């Protein structure tokens, strides 16, 4: 079991309010991602749940039990750190066994569990090595192994993939998702990378300046962002925003169009907005065009990889009428 | 400078450096060779360099005359004892300051350092009187307490600078893994800080071993350490030059060896981490 | 990090260290100050009661105090001069490409590990003794009259011994600082056309300035309290010729059993040390922020 409830959680360091007031309900077995720009308070929020920091006010409940004042050791949660935080003086085996040793489990049982975890994570042949003799990916696995052996109520991940190279990151992303499907234990995962959030989460919490901007499934966030911040943060490349007269045509303070929601033409006049290609980024599968649109500014447009464009090419854009996001002056999404 | 110097320059510098170094080392060298000479040869004119008659008698005589072994044992007890006691007090304190710093941590550290700067003579008289009244004069445990107190700031400072280099993540991981404070310190912090703790231990044993104010003023016979032992040779000893050398060699040899191993830590410890 | 719980624990764990040091610092010092205003002599138990500034007038007014103060300054200043200049020179030398660097370092650092009474006795009997000391032999070989160092130049002799002990310390710290100067910076200066003298003047010396400051301050703290070297060589004499403040307090308080006057001298020593300490703390404190 591992449902986590935050009730009006506030965290201040002296005068500085990091988290003004957050209430969240995370269900047992859910994979929840906290995502937001750096300094948004997502790591602090995770550390509050872990018990590594204490709340200034408000309550944190695990399975309905109030653990607000409990030290981390008593919360029964496991955490995977960005730096992996492996014990450098212990072998991989002892690293993984450490939480069990702390729980005073009999040695025979510890051995069994460590063996099992090592097999699951393909660490079998490294058990007697020291962490410094491992690669980044292997260290990451040891950190995960150390977390799973004690069968915690929930896993907390603090930007676990940010120290890995791009290829490995994609692999570990899959492994963690598989692990979740296998264990069905609650996981909270902190990242600044919206791709990780979209691909891994059951539900995403978008944080900005210590506030929850939106809490929902990845597609919900993509399709119905609650506000301009979420709209701009979720989705890659970023949504294009247009203010002024063009937005007023849609009865909004500003409108947003995702790069993938344009129809592109090279025929003169065959589009609402005319522009000039500034830079064309070719990825093979897709091409991202940075188009200087007359009177509206720079827009990113996604098109298929077959077409080639050059700096200075004239293009004509038509936003998909059904997929124009509208926002009011406060940045909140306007419902149709 | 001039990393790819010519061989000539290198020879020149090498000769110069060795000359200066040997001059600086010559008093110690003199002590070593004289310790193995006969008394007559030690004061011979012109002086000999290596002993003509190699003898170990001086060491035996020194032991018979002043009981080297007793004094050395006292030195070991006081220097090791005070350092271990200091570590027991300092490890928790350094943990606090390195991993749970508050606004006042820096002030406390500076204040601790300032206690080290109080000149011993400023408190000699009260300590002497207190020791006299508590019958601690000329006792090993009395001296150990004083030595712990005078070296405690250095021990705390050194440990603090070493602990600061340990990522706090790892201690937090231990907490998440269910370790209570005791286990966090015993199973994670101390094993990780072993090199730092060992350096601290070494430097403080050396400092305590060579401390020559309190050891001389607070002891007379029973609890005398090697500094007191050697001071007993300070009266004019014209005829006992070889024995004096033997005694000196016995007093400095153990620490000289330890010192050679701990040069780097010495810099860090004595500059309170200001020069690394 | 830091939850309330951790902070409470931290305070508890720091308490023993803070408390013992607080007692160590406050109680004896308070007693010294108290005694310094008392008529208190172990020899003359009839002499009791409040002395006012009497002890201070007695200690400071005595010509021996002025001499001890001058001796203290000469001792500290002389040793600093020798060790800082010599240490800089030695550090630069040891930083050159030379054969046997490791062994050289060990030879140079060794005097620091020699306990003060041993250092003093080796110099006194083996080197400075007019009859059979090595310097005596050397002078005779050169056809000069051997010098009775401790009789003729007592303070200078003490300075030589103490400088010999502290030169390794200065060298080692300056060498460490020197080696932390990046190779690139030196090479950049070389590319910019700076010759050896200019590189020393504009690159190396400024880089070492901090380390030199620290050497001066730390040594000053230790040098103000020089005791054993005087105790086993000259005993402060002849007369008061090699008595410094520390030794004067010992002489007055312990040897002459005048607790009141000795304490007054102790307070003066504390005040002098504090003036130095303020500067040292600033230098070290700056480093804490960095």
TrEMBL record, chain A:
Residue ranges occupied by any ABC transporter domain in the UniProt entry: 4-234
PROSITE patterns named among the record's database cross-references: ABC_TRANSPORTER_1, ABC_TRANSPORTER_2
A GO term from the CC aspect: ATP-binding cassette (ABC) transporter complex, substrate-binding subunit-containing
Organism lineage string: Bacteria, Pseudomonadati, Pseudomonadota, Alphaproteobacteria, Hyphomicrobiales
Main localization of the protein described in the UniProt heading: membrane
Signal peptide extent: none
Keywords (A to Z) from UniProt: ATP-binding, Nucleotide-binding, Transport
Protein name, UniProt field: ATP-binding cassette domain-containing protein
GO molecular function: ABC-type maltose transporter activity; ATP binding; ATP hydrolysis activity
Protein topology in the membrane: Peripheral membrane protein
Cellular localization per UniProt: Cell inner membrane
Organism from which the protein derives: Devosia marina
Matching InterPro entries: AAA+_ATPase (IPR003593), ABC_transporter-like_ATP-bd (IPR003439), ABC_transporter-like_CS (IPR017871), ABC_transpr_MalK-like (IPR015855), ABC_transpr_MalK/UgpC-like (IPR047641), Mo/tungstate-bd_C_term_dom (IPR008995), NA-bd_OB-fold (IPR012340), P-loop_NTPase (IPR027417)
Protein family membership: Belongs to the ABC transporter superfamily.
Lineage: superkingdom: Bacteria
Automatic annotation (TrEMBL), chain B:
Sequence intervals crossing the membrane: 12-33, 76-96, 108-131, 143-163, 184-206, 240-261
One Gene Ontology term from the biological process aspect of the record: transmembrane transport
InterPro entries: BP-dep_ABC_trans_perm, MetI-like, MetI-like_sf
Entry GO terms, CC: plasma membrane
Keywords: Cell membrane, Membrane, Transmembrane, Transmembrane helix, Transport
Topology relative to the membrane: Multi-pass membrane protein
Primary location recorded for the protein, binned into one broad class: membrane
Xref: Pfam families: BPD_transp_1
Subcellular localization(s) per the UniProt record: Cell membrane
Annotated CDD domains: TM_PBP2
Gene3D superfamilies named in the record: MetI-like
Residues annotated as domain ABC transmembrane type-1: 72-262
The organism's place on the tree of life at top rank: Bacteria
Stated family: Belongs to the binding-protein-dependent transport system permease family.
Annotated protein name in UniProt: ABC transporter permease subunit
Automatic annotation (TrEMBL), chain C:
Cellular compartments annotated: Cell membrane
Signal peptide, first to last residue: none
Family statement drawn from the similarity comment of this UniProt entry: Belongs to the binding-protein-dependent transport system permease family.
Transmembrane segments: 12-37, 73-94, 106-123, 155-178, 208-228, 259-281
Gene Ontology biological process terms in this record: transmembrane transport
Membrane topology designation: Multi-pass membrane protein
Annotated GO CC locations: plasma membrane
Recorded coiled-coil stretches: none
Gene3D superfamilies reported for this sequence: MetI-like
UniProt xrefs under PROSITE patterns: ABC_TM1
One Pfam family hit: BPD_transp_1
Alphabetical keyword list: Cell membrane, Membrane, Transmembrane, Transmembrane helix, Transport
UniProt organism field: Devosia marina
Major location (coarse): membrane
Name of the protein described by the UniProt record: ABC transporter permease subunit
UniProt domain ABC transmembrane type-1: residue ranges: 69-280
The keyword Transport belongs to this UniProt entry's keyword annotation: yes
């Amino acid at each position: 079991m591992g449902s986590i409830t935050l009730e009006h959680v506030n965290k201040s360091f002296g005068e500085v309010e990091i988290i003004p007031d957050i209430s969240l309900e995370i269900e047992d077995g859910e994979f929840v991602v906290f995502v937001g720009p750096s300094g948004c308070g997502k790591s602090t929020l995770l550390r509050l749940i872990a018990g590594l920091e204490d709340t200034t006010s408000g309550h944190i409940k695990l399975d309905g039990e109030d653990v607000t004042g409990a030290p981390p050791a008593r919360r029964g949660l496991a955490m995977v750190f960005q730096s992996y935080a492996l014990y450098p003086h212990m072998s991989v085996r002892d690293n993984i066994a450490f939480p069990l040793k702390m729980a005073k489990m009999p040695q025979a049982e510890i051995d069994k569990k460590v063996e099992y975890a090592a097999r699951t994570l393909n660490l079998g042949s490294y058990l007697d090595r020291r962490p410094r003799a491992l690669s980044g990916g292997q260290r990451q696995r040891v950190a995960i192994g150390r977390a799973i052996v004690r069968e915690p109520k929930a896993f907390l991940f603090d930007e676990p993939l940010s120290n890995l190279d791009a290829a490995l990151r994609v692999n570990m992303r899959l492994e963690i998702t598989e692990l979740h499907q296998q264990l069905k234990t609650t996981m909270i995962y902190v990242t600044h990378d919206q791709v990780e959030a979209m691909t891994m989460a059951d539900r995403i919490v978008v944080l900005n300046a210590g506030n929850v901007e939106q809490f929902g499934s990845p597609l919900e966030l993509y399709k119905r962002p609650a506000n301009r911040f979420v709209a701009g943060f979720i989705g890659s490349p970023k949504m294009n925003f247009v203010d002024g007269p063009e937005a007023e045509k849609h009865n909004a303070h500003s409108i947003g169009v995702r790069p993938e929601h344009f129809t592109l033409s090279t025929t003169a006049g065959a589009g609402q907005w005319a522009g000039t290609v500034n830079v064309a980024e070719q990825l093979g599968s897709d091409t991202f065009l940075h188009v200087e649109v007359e009177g509206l500014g720079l827009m990113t447009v996604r098109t298929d990889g077959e077409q080639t464009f050059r700096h200075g090419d004239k293009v004509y854009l038509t936003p998909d009428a059904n997929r124009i996001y509208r926002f009011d002056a406060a940045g909140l999404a306007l419902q149709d | 400078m001039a990393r790819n110097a010519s061989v000539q320059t290198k020879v020149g510098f090498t000769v110069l450096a060795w000359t200066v170094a040997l001059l600086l080392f010559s008093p110690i060298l003199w002590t070593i060779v004289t310790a193995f000479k006969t008394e007559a040869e030690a004061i011979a004119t012109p002086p000999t360099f290596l002993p003509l008659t190699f003898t170990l008698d001086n060491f035996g005589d020194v032991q018979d005359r002043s009981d080297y072994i007793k004094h050395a044992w006292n030195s070991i007890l006081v220097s090791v004892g005070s350092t271990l006691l200091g570590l027991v007090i300092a490890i928790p304190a350094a943990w606090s300051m390195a991993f749970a710093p508050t606004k006042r941590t820096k002030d406390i550290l500076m204040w601790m350092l300032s206690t080290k700067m109080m000149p011993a003579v400023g408190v000699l008289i009260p300590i002497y009187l207190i020791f006299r009244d508590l019958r601690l004069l000329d006792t090993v445990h009395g001296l150990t307490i004083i030595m712990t107190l005078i070296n405690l700031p250095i021990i705390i400072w050194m440990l603090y600078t070493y602990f600061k280099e340990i990522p706090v993540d790892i201690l937090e991981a231990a907490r998440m893994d269910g370790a209570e404070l005791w286990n966090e310190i015993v199973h994670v912090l101390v094993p990780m800080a072993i090199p730092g703790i060992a350096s601290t231990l070494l430097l403080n044993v050396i400092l305590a071993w060579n401390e020559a104010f309190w050891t001389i003023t607070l002891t007379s016979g029973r609890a005398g350490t090697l500094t007191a032992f050697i001071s007993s040779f300070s009266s004019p000893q014209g005829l006992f030059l070889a024995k004096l050398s033997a005694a000196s060699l016995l007093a400095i040899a153990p620490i000289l060896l330890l010192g050679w191993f701990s040069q780097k830590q010495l810099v860090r410890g004595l500059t309170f981490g200001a020069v690394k | 990090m830091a939850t309330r719980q951790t902070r409470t624990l931290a305070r508890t764990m720091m308490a023993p260290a803070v408390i013992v040091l607080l007692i160590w610092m406050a109680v004896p010092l308070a007693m010294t100050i108290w005694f310094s205003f008392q008529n208190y002599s172990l020899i003359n138990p009839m002499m009791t009661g409040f002395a006012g500034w009497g002890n201070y007038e007695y200690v400071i007014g005595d010509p021996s105090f002025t001499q001890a103060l001058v001796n203290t300054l000469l001792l500290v200043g002389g040793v600093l001069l020798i060790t800082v200049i010599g240490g800089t020179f030695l550090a630069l030398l040891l930083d050159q490409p030379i054969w046997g660097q490791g062994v050289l370092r060990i030879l140079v650092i060794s005097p620091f590990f020699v306990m003060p009474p041993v250092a003093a006795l080796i110099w006194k009997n083996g080197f400075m003794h007019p009859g059979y000391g090595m310097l005596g032999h050397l002078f005779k070989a050169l056809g000069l009259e051997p010098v009775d160092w401790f009789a003729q130049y007592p303070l200078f002799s003490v300075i030589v011994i103490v400088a010999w002990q502290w030169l390794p310390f200065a060298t080692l710290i300056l060498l460490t600082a020197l080696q932390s100067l990046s190779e690139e910076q030196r090479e950049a200066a070389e590319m910019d056309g700076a010759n050896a003298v200019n590189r020393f003047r504009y690159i190396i010396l400024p880089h070492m300035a901090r380390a030199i400051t620290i050497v001066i301050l730390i040594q000053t703290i230790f040098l103000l309290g020089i005791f054993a070297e005087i105790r086993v060589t000259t005993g402060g004499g002849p007369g008061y010729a090699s008595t410094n403040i520390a030794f004067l307090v010992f002489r007055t308080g312990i040897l002459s059993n005048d607790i009141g006057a000795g304490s007054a001298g102790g307070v003066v020593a504390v005040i002098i040390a504090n003036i130095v300490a303020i500067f040292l703390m600033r230098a070290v404190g700056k480093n804490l922020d960095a």
